[in-house]
Amino acid sequence: QIDKWTDMFDRLVEKLHLRYAAVTGHAEVEQVIESLIGQTNSGDDVYVRGKIDRLEISDDGKYYIIDFKTGNQVASDIPENPQLKTYQTAVAKSVDPQNTSSSSVSSPPSSHTPEKNSADNCLAGAELIYPHKKPRKPTAQDPLTNDDVNAWARQLVDLALVMAGPYFAGS
Known about the structure:
5-stranded mixed β-sheet, 31% helix
């Protein structure tokens, strides 16, 4: 059992060393975010609240989101991963003047200079990191564009309406 944990720790350290080499600013850990993402047709505000495991912020204001996963199941469709899209949307709506009406991420600018930045907002992408295994497929999600952010925010508002109704049937 101790060998398993040692291997997991070593993989995590290796991955964080690679991330550290890419970061030119700083990183925040367990960053709580609450973001106004839209309004219902009746004018009710819809917020997303969550905790981002690692939030890297570049000197030029680009945010890269990392979520550490400890489960055995590796996500299969990273480009459409709803958790990463939700985090990216919440960050964009919180810190990007082009995408927000209020709210802010409570962290000072940090740094990360990824290969792909979304030119029209503050996002640099998002990633799932699995310390206990080496996934066969890439686990990074490209940065969402403003159109992507706004489309996902509309879906989240629709979901909030369904969840706030008199019945919510889980499967």
